[in-house]
């Protein structure tokens, strides 16, 4: 089973602050790196994704930074809002999706 | 457009029993993948069905099985339930198979079925 390491396990940020979640993977054969957001009682929802041929992708307040040589990628949430409070999962895709253990984000009002 | 629906939402079973979970994908989606989510192991891939064929399988015992019907609806079966099978079972649908050699398709997750094994 491929491993995906994700940190931190939990994160508390003040409203308006920047939330940063990191992921690291082992296998270089992955070619798609999505982030999912999950609210309690709901299934995960795709937030943003990146391919290894670019180093950064931005969609609104969400940015993925990708470091292929280090086999790491991170999610940055700018101007964090209480509504962003959720669990975030990174994933890698080779032949199927392998997910990180998740980060519980709490944004304080 | 209706999302992915899963039934039932909650289920309580006892050890040794078997259970069948159902997933209806988004209209037009032909791929259904199943995942197990637990606090300890996180989200783990079980298997994917595309056009009624199992396309890929995760590292789970044979007690976990599934099938897909011609209308793309899928069922997952777990036989001889164990306490460790207690989990949230999620299905996700996508337009094409996630094992495509080109662009992996975005998956849309359902709300899950919460299975408790006593």
Describe, in short, the structure shown.
The complex is a heterodimer of chains A (about 110) and B (about 120). With about 110 residues, chain A is mainly beta.
Largest interface: A-B, 21 and 22 residues
Rg of chain A is 13 Å
In terms of DSSP E residues, the strand content of chain A is: over 45%
Parts with pLDDT < 50 across at least 5 consecutive residues of chain B: none
Polypeptide structure, described:
The complex is a heterodimer of chains A (about 110) and B (about 120). Chain A is mainly beta. In chain A, about 0% of the residues lie in helices and about 55% in strands. Chain A contains no helices and eleven strands. In chain A, strands 2, 4, 5, 9, 10 and 11 form a six-stranded mixed beta sheet that branches. Chain A is globular. In chain B, strand 5 (about 40-50) and strand 6 (about 55) form a beta hairpin. The mean pLDDT of chain B is about 90. Chain B is an all-beta fold. In chain B, strands 2, 4, 5, 6, 9, 10 and 11 form a seven-stranded mixed beta sheet that branches. A four-stranded antiparallel beta sheet of chain B has the order 1-3-8-7, with no helix packed on it. The termini of chain B are far apart.
């Amino acid at each position: 089973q491929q491993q995906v390491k994700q940190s931190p396990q939990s994160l508390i940020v003040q409203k308006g602050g920047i939330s940063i979640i990191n992921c690291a993977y082992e296998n270089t054969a992955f070619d798609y790196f999505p982030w999912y957001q999950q609210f309690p009682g709901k299934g995960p929802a795709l937030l943003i994704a990146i391919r290894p041929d670019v180093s950064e992708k931005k969609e609104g307040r969400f940015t993925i930074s990708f470091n292929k040589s280090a086999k790491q990628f991170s999610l940055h949430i700018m101007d964090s809002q209480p509504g962003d409070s959720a669990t975030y999962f990174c994933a890698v895709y080779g032949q199927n999706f392998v997910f990180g253990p998740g980060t519980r984000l709490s944004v304080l009002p | 457009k209706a999302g992915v629906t899963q039934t039932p939402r909650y289920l309580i079973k006892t050890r040794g029993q078997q259970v069948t979970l159902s997933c209806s994908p988004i209209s037009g989606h032909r791929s259904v993948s199943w995942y197990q989510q637990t606090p300890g192991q996180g989200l783990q891939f079980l298997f994917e069905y595309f056009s009624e064929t199992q396309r890929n399988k995760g590292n789970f015992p044979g007690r976990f099985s599934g099938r897909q019907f011609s209308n793309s609806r899928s069922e997952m079966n777990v036989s001889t339930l164990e306490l460790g099978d207690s989990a949230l079972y999620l299905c996700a649908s996508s337009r094409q198979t996630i094992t495509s050699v080109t662009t992996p398709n975005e998956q849309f997750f359902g709300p899950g079925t919460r299975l408790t094994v006593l």
